[in-house]
Design brief:
The protein is of the alpha/beta class and about 375 residues long. It has 2 domains: about 180 residues, Rossmann fold, CATH 3.40.50; about 190 residues, 3-Layer(aba) Sandwich (Rossmann fold). The strands form 4 sheets. The chain has a 7-stranded parallel β-sheet with strand order 5-3-1-8-9-10-11, with helices on both faces.
Length: about 375
């Protein structure tokens, strides 16, 4: 008989569709997915209504969001974890989800194995003590990055009970898009967007928000031009900073070098825009954007402060798949961009393959599913 596993999140964002598919393909493990509704309505969820063609088993709970979405209580989760017919439960390891504390205790009392799928970021703060207490409720931790693993080991966790599952996007669709790419499409798109298509293209994709420090990118464009390394910038996305960035580009007389493309959710279009770029630059924090860029062969530059980063920044191997600049130093960012462009002149296809290989090795649903299944089987003492 297959072991039965409950996977309980607040909501399953649509980018998790492929990892859910990969998990359900296992004949020795039977997965049931449990979720409620998102606090932020802009999140596109996977739910029973829009996944009717998928072989998913579903359970629904009522999400009760508190303090403007900071805390969560999931009505129905406790009963499912304690009384449900499961051998183990995978819970999103968020200590601000209050019902998860109780659900983990009840699952253990019911002799079920408990797994936390978590960021497990620790910043040497007082509240880290509370986080550590929370994480110890789990038999095993499933983490997004290696740094989080090392932090937990330093805090007394058994390395055998920690697995790094990384993160992924819509890998299969992106692989299909990559097969449709060719140099002609890339060249035509650069000529369509830029007056100087032969200049390197620096890309930012995401919300144009203050915390992204995008004024650094426009200022870098200005300074690089003065240094004799002119570049183009492509902003994909919209947000509160767009007007300020437009004005800054005008101040530096960069209108013919800076393009504001706007929001785009068409993966075929995005595949061309990302693949035609020489660098993805995220002066603030970077998350899954790094994986999106790398999977289309575009290296990434972001800052080196791990406490202010998403775990996906670990995919950036300096000199191989991008660079890390000194946190909050514009001069360092400019130097790293210039260094990368000079160092990799004429090596675009080599760099592209290096980026592909990183995603193919770790940041894809197949790898994630294999790690999760191995962790479950180990906890259940199954071969």
């Amino acid at each position: 008989m297959p072991a039965k596993i409950l996977v309980a999140f607040h909501v399953f964002p649509y980018y998790r569709l492929q990892i859910m598919r990969a998990l359900t393909q296992d004949k020795d493990l039977q997965f049931t997915f449990l979720a409620g509704s998102a606090f932020v309505k802009s999140i596109k969820p996977i739910n029973p209504e829009n996944s009717k063609g998928e072989p998913f088993r579903w359970k629904s709970v009522k999400n009760i969001w508190l303090c403007n979405g900071r805390f969560l209580w999931q009505s129905g989760l406790l009963k499912e974890c304690y009384s449900g017919d499961y051998d183990g439960v995978i819970l999103l390891g968020n200590p601000y989800f209050l019902s998860t504390w109780v659900a983990a205790v009840l699952a253990r009392l019911a002799n079920k194995k408990v797994f936390f799928w978590a960021h497990a970021t620790l910043r040497n703060q007082l509240r880290d003590l509370l986080k550590i207490m929370f994480y110890k409720l789990a038999h095993k931790m499933l983490l997004y990055g290696e740094r989080a693993r090392q932090n937990l080991i330093l805090n007394g966790f058994n390395p055998a009970n920690i697995s790094v599952v990384y993160n992924s996007l819509n890998y299969e669709e992106q692989e299909q898009m990559k097969m449709m790419l060719d140099e002609e499409k890339i060249t035509l798109k650069r000529r369509e967007l830029f007056l100087h298509p032969d200049h390197p293209v620096l890309l930012f994709i995401g919300r144009l928000m203050p915390k992204k420090k995008l004024d650094y990118l426009v200022s870098a464009c200005h300074q690089l031009g003065k240094r004799g390394t002119p570049v183009n910038i492509l902003f994909i996305g919209s947000g509160t900073e767009e007007g300020k960035l437009i004005q800054l580009a005008k101040k530096y007389n960069l209108q013919e070098f800076v393009v504001f493309y706007g929001e785009c959710y068409n993966e075929e279009v995005l595949s061309i825009l990302i693949a035609m770029s020489d660098l993805c630059v995220s002066p603030g924090n970077v998350g899954l954007t790094a994986i999106h860029a790398l999977n289309y062969g575009t290296p990434v530059i972001t800052h080196n402060n791990p406490f202010m980063q998403g775990p996906e920044y670990e995919a950036i191997e300096p000199g191989i798949t991008g660079m890390l600049y000194q946190y909050e130093s514009l001069d360092s960012l400019i130097d790293k961009i210039e260094q990368w462009l000079i160092m990799n002149r004429g090596r675009r296809e080599i760099v592209r393959k290096q980026c592909y290989d990183t995603v193919a090795r770790y940041y894809n649903p197949s790898f994630q599913a294999s790690v999760i299944k191995a962790a479950i089987n180990h906890a259940l003492e199954r071969e």
